[in-house]
Amino acid sequence: MNTLPQNLVHRRILLIISGGISAYKSLDLIRRLRERGAEVRCILTSGGAQFITPLSVGALSENKVYTDLFSLTDEQEMGHIRLARDCDLILVAPASANIMARAAQGLADDLASTVLLATDKPVMMCPAMNPAMWAHVATQENIATLKRRGVHFIDPAVGDMACGEHGTGRLPDVPEIVTAVAQFFEVSGPLRGRRAIVTSGPTHESIDPVRFIGNISSGRQGHAIAAALAGAGAEVTLISGPVSEAPPAGVQVVRVTTAQQMLEAALKALPADIAVCAAAVADYRPAEAATSKLKKSGDLGLSLTLVQNPDILRTIAQGNHRPALVVGFAAETEAGIEDAKQKLARKGCDWLVLNDVSGGKVFGQEDNTVTVLKNAGKDATADVWPCMSKTDVARRLTAEIAAAFE
Ligand code: CTP
């Protein structure tokens, strides 16, 4: 089991690095946040850029670094309003006296201050400055103003300063900042306290010791859903068939090979509040797997007797410990919404995510186009989502799951 705190998985953090000698710590901060599964995008102010370079920030965040309010290229790629809102938290570290004063005043004279004014997302500031600047009534009043407006603060540490003075004003150590960010999400995760089971990937059903029946599912969509649910605070058990996809951080992973093992693992993980069955389970398995490698026998073909595998989704949806919300997937090459509605009713799940896998679409790909069906009978709805990355499908599905639990 992965022991990293689960609450930064897939969290999108916009890190504003303002001017200060401690800006060098932001480089390590980027690494540590990312290690815990966060996606970090950075704004480097002109003051910050006196201490560290956009190149190092970009290399560590593996993202474009934004520096300029009036960059035509940046605006075409992502306008500053979207930059301000396309995140789960804006973290200002280090936050100089200057940036806090400008935020308190509502100035919008550079990219960082404009983003702070335009955002509708939570903001957390980590002030760092000389002790006299920290203690100054102007700084303290600015902080009081920002706190009144809902800005979260991580107080600076006491110690020796780079300027040779001693007092309050040091940027806290990076692990402390990471913990504070994690705690922030822990408290705010909409699925905190909920348990979720996700099945993902294919199953392999043995024919003999070296051959199996399987399919080309990569597990990418199921793994992304497990990560997104964990990111929203849920305690997630991911039951994964054989895939090369890396296990998401903060998720308990149970690896299985066959459908029967997947069913056993799923039943063991119950009770849960949410079950998302995204696995492409083999419908059939050889009645008996040969104990030694099958040999060719002359020109004759080979017949295998197959028996049906248990239906994991149906067993969960119709079982005694049914989770409050059961979501199935339907990978179809030709079926339409009517067939999908019937499948939803047949399986007994609440929602069904229909994807068209014809012509090599979806399996193993980055993107997915899905139709989400909710409820059976007269309350049934079908919502066609535009083509988006599997990560975005996972996020949107998680947001809808969270809304269903509100
Ligand atoms: N599923 C399952 N166990 C199985 C077969 C399918 O849990 N043995 C789940 C899948 O994870 C998915 C849903 O059922 O969430 C639909 O899978 P799909 O393969 O589309 O449905 P089938 O029941 O296999 O129906 P068919 O192939 O006949 O369309």
The class by helix and strand makeup works out as alpha/beta
Mean pLDDT: 91
Characterize the main sheet.
Answer: 8 strands, mixed
Provide the CATH top-level class of the largest domain: Alpha Beta
How would you explain this protein's 3D organization?
This protein has helices spanning 23-35, 54-61, 72-77, 80-85, 97-105, 111-118, 131-135, 137-148, 174-188, 220-231, 259-269, 312-317, 337-347, 390-405; strands at 12-17, 39-44, 65-66, 89-95, 123-127, 152-153, 157-160, 166-170, 195-200, 205-208, 211-213, 235-240, 252-255, 274-277, 284-286, 306-308, 325-332, 351-356, 367-368, 370-374, 381-384, 388-389. It is of the alpha/beta class. The protein folds into two domains: 6-188, Rossmann fold (3-Layer(aba) Sandwich), CATH 3.40.50.1950; 195-292 and 299-404, Rossmann fold, CATH 3.40.50.10300. Helix 10 packs across helix 14. It binds cytidine-5'-triphosphate (CTP). Cytidine-5'-triphosphate (CTP) binds at residues 199, 259, 277, 279, 281, 283, 309, 311-313, 328-331.
What does this entry show, briefly?
The protein is α/β, with parallel strands linked by helices. The protein has helices at 23-35, 54-61, 72-77, 80-85, 97-105, 111-118, 131-135, 137-148, 174-188, 220-231, 259-269, 312-317, 337-347, 390-405; strands at 12-17, 39-44, 65-66, 89-95, 123-127, 152-153, 157-160, 166-170, 195-200, 205-208, 211-213, 235-240, 252-255, 274-277, 284-286, 306-308, 325-332, 351-356, 367-368, 370-374, 381-384, 388-389. The radius of gyration is 26 Å and the shape is elongated.
